[in-house]
Every structure is written in structure tokens, then in C-alpha cells.
Specification:
The chain is α/β, with parallel strands linked by helices. Helices cover 31% and strands 25% of the residues. It has 14 helices and 24 strands. Strands 22-23-1-24 form a 4-stranded mixed beta sheet. A 4-stranded mixed beta sheet has the order 2-15-17-16. Strands 4-5-3-14 form a 4-stranded mixed beta sheet, covered by helices on one side. Bound molecules: ligand EPZ.
């Protein structure tokens, strides 16, 4: 398995181009399954997860071609509404095919996703929502079977503004009979773009970006093309590195998607300048600042691990609370191996800033934990070896090349067997 070798304490400078958003393109790809014809999706990041989703598209019968971040999906030949276990277990987002294939075929079989590195990740909101739309849901031998001759619009109220459930139910509802209202819907930019894409396909969705989404069912959809929004989580990851290691500029990014993160970074001592499509960060005296994640537009849970790496070197003590995933702290023992001083109680990490981190071998456990270990390795004295980096390759496009171009000493060791 590949590993990353990092020589720490090299400052960063220059600019980095942010890739398209993983968490936008995955549901957009499954939405493309709803209509005959060819959709062209541009600015698709070349990731393990996008390639896994392409495999799933082909398993259900679509024809895909992917080159230079351009993805063509011809869904005319989709004929097998089933997402197999061995694929769903590697990527929870495969569950996004449930709504689209049920809407198009009236029946779909999808393996229940398991948990992930940091704990269980239920799908009860997805299933309850589909039942509200009239689907018959049965579970046998680890597969969900959903059936519905024609889905009927309904009022659906999420007890938590789930990103995935909002996406799945919106896709199922766009061709249902009558109107669907989703209360307490997710407002993440990735769901906003999914809803805009569905409207480009002929759907009638209003209230996009608010907690109340209204969907008037239409008879059918047609294919459409779209350019994926920038990845705000990749951008936030580079910002945390910049706050530690030097003035860098992020290009092809949407600063509006990072309001709460930019505010926190300024509070912690960085200077930030933005234009409509760039962000420049310059390190200051790093101060310990408390942070609590929240659903959008709050501080993203997907940046919590990277933030903890940053606070490990801040002057003073701080708390980092995750209100979205209460057990998403598998990165903290690894950061402590590098000399950080972090204790976790319930869903809060108590961080005492230290003067320096010292390089050591550490192990990735999930996409964002890996990112926090890379940031820590870049600032640690000596050499850090990050293993199991297939996790990072799921969500970051050529991350070591991007950091190297900014002046970091980091390379991918493929010989580690
Ligand atoms: C999406 O996951 C993202 N993944 C995650 O990013 C992100 O961490 C998460 O949203 C929160 O922002 C993709 O978009 C592919 P949720 P999702 O449903 O949709 C609970 C990354 O690193 N819940 O909003 O699975 C759930 O347990 C990944 O790119 C239920 O209880 O997240 C969690 O506590 C990691 N029942 C909370 O809601 C359900 O049916 C938020 O989950 C669904 C969710």
C-alpha cells in the first residue's frame, strides 16, 4: 500500500488550483441516471470515489467515459437497478442511487452501507422519506429492496438536516405525482448544486438552499450538462496548512462557501484576502480558539480534523466539538503520536497547544483524518510517514503534487507493498 513520506518544516508559498467538489459530483452522477441521453459533467475530480461511482454507473448499465476531468454519462442503457455490497461497502455515497433508480424503474436493490472508521452511519432518514413517498421498503440479507409503481408527493420532515437524505429524497421526488415538501432540508452547497442540476434536467424545485425545499413532480427528465462547484473541503484543508506554513493563494475556489471557516482562521490570527474566485491566507501568531462544527453554513465537520491539527500548535488551549458526528476523532491518537496534546471526552477534543510536533510513522483511518496527518507532518520536525493513504486518495486529487508545488517536501512511496 502506498505511503506518503514528508520532511517537515518547509514553508509554503505560491498558489494552488482547487478541484471540483467530490460531495457535489457524486449525487450529480446518480441524478444523471434518471434520464435517457448523454450528460456531460465537467471539473470532475479524479478520485478513488469518483472512479468507484463510475464503476457503479456501469454496473447499473450506463456508459461512461472519463478523461481530463470531463465525464460523459449515457444513461439510455441503464437496465439493472442494483448496487452490490462489495461496492457500497467501499463508498457510502453509492446509496445515492436509491432515489434515482427507484424513481426511474419503480424498483431498486441497494446494499445497506456499513459503518465507517469513526462509527455507525445510519440511513433511516433516507428510508423513512422514501416510505413517505409511497415506497415499500424491505430489508433482506443486507440489501434494501425498495418498490413503488409511482411515487407520490408528500410532506417530509428530517429530524436532522442530513445531506445524503436530502439528496436522495429530492431525486426520488422530482418525478413523483404531486408536490413534495422537505422540511429541515440540508443547505450544503453540494445539495444546492444537485437541486440546480435536477432543475436543468427539467425538475421543478424551489426553495433551493433553504431548509424548506418544495418539489412539484414532473412526468420525466432529460439529460443536462454541468460544471461542478469547487471543493470547499479541499480548500479548507489547504487554508489550514497555509495558516501554519506560509502565505498561499487558492484559485478556482468560492470563498462564499467558507464563511465560517475564514472567520475562525482570522480569529486564530491568520490574515485572509478574498476575490470572487480566490482566497489568500497569510499566517499570523497562531492563537488557540474554540470551534464547534455545525451543518452548513456552520463550520464543516469535514474540516474538524484539519482544524485540530492546526490548534495543536496554537498558543494556549482550545476545545473542538463535533455536533454532527460525535465520534469522529480517530485522528487524535495519531496526532498525539506526533507530539500533540489532545484529550477527547464525548464529542469534544481538548487541545493544549505545543511548541512543536516531531515526525513519526502514523496511520490514516479516513479521508479527513489523513488530511490532518499530512498537515501535521508538514509542520513537524523531521520525517513523518503516513500509511494507508488510499483513504486520502478517495477525496483529494493529487494532494502530494499540489503540496509539493507549494514548496512542501512530500512524496508518494509506492514501494511499501
Ligand atoms: C455527507 O455525508 C458527506 N459525504 C460527508 O463527507 C459529510 O461529513 C456529511 O455529509 C456531513 O456534512 C458525501 O456527501 C458523500 P449526513 P452523509 O447524512 O450524507 C446522521 C467526506 O469526508 N444520519 O448529513 O452521510 C448521521 O449519522 C464525507 O467527504 C442519520 O442519523 O451525512 C450524522 O450524524 C465524510 N440517519 C448526521 O446525520 C440518516 O439516515 C449527518 O449525516 C442519515 C444521517
Amino acid at each position: 500500500m502506498d505511503q506518503l513520506i514528508i520532511q517537515g518544516q518547509h514553508s509554503l508559498s505560491g498558489s494552488v488550483k482547487i478541484s471540483g467538489a467530490k460531495n457535489a459530483v457524486l449525487p450529480i452522477m446518480t441524478a444523471a441516471l434518471m434520464a435517457e441521453g448523454e450528460s456531460i459533467i465537467t471539473r470532475v475530480p479524479d478520485l478513488r470515489d469518483t472512479r468507484t461511482m463510475i464503476k457503479l454507473m456501469e454496473i447499473v448499465g450506463a456508459r461512461c467515459s472519463f478523461k481530463d476531468n470531463h465525464l460523459k454519462i449515457d444513461a439510455s442503457t441503464v437496465n439493472n437497478p442494483e448496487a452490490p455490497y462489495d461496492l457500497v461497502k467501499t463508498m457510502r455515497a453509492s446509496f445515492y442511487v436509491l432515489g434515482p433508480l427507484l424513481a426511474r424503474f419503480g424498483t431498486v436493490k441497494v446494499s445497506l452501507p456499513g459503518g465507517c472508521a469513526w462509527g455507525p452511519r445510519p440511513v433511516d432518514f433516507h428510508l423513512k422519506g422514501l416510505e413517505k413517498l409511497g415506497a415499500k421498503i424491505t430489508l433482506n440479507s443486507g440489501y434494501i429492496l425498495a418498490e413503488a409503481k409511482r411515487l407520490k408527493g408528500a410532506k417530509i420532515n428530517f429530524e436532522f438536516p442530513s445531506v445524503g437524505a436530502t439528496g436522495n429524497i429530492a431525486m426520488a421526488a422530482v418525478t413523483a405525482e404531486g408536490t413534495t415538501v422537505i422540511e429541515n432540508a440540508a443547505r450544503e452547497p453540494e445539495i444546492v448544486q444537485l437541486c440546480k442540476y435536477l432543475n436543468q434536467m427539467g425538475a421543478l424545485i424551489s426553495g433551493i438552499g433553504t431548509s424548506r425545499i418544495i418539489i412539484d413532480g414532473v412526468e420525466s427528465l432529460h439529460s443536462a450538462n454541468i460544471d461542478v462547484i469547487p471543493d470547499r473541503i479541499e480548500a479548507g484543508t489547504f487554508l489550514m496548512a497555509g495558516a501554519l506554513l506560509g502565505k498561499i493563494t487558492l484559485t478556482d475556489v468560492n470563498p462564499d462557501h467558507l464563511d465560517s471557516v475564514l472567520l475562525k482562521l482570522k480569529e486564530a490570527g491568520s490574515s485572509i484576502e478574498t476575490t470572487s474566485n480566490s482566497i489568500t491566507i497569510e499566517p499570523g501568531h497562531l492563537k488557540a480558539v474554540d470551534m464547534s462544527t455545525a451543518v452548513y453554513p456552520g463550520f464543516a465537520t469535514d474540516l474538524q480534523a484539519q482544524w485540530i491539527a492546526l490548534m495543536s500548535l496554537a498558543k494556549g488551549s482550545s476545545m473542538a466539538t463535533d455536533t454532527v458526528y460525535h465520534d469522529r476523532f480517530s485522528h487524535t491518537p495519531e496526532l498525539n503520536r506526533l507530539g500533540a496534546n489532545i484529550k477527547v471526552e464525548n464529542n469534544t477534543a481538548f487541545i493544549r497547544g505545543v511548541k512543536e510536533l516531531v515526525g513519526a510513522p502514523v496511520m490514516s483511518t479516513d479521508i479527513r483524518a489523513s488530511a490532518s496527518l499530512i498537515i501535521a507532518g508538514l509542520v513537524a520536525r523531521g520525517t513523518t510517514i503516513v500509511s494507508r493513504i488510499y483513504h486520502i486518495d478517495r477525496g483529494y486529487e493529487r494532494i502530494e503534487e499540489k503540496f509539493e508545488a507549494l514548496g512542501a517536501k512530500i512524496f508518494r512511496d509506492k514501494t511499501s507493498g
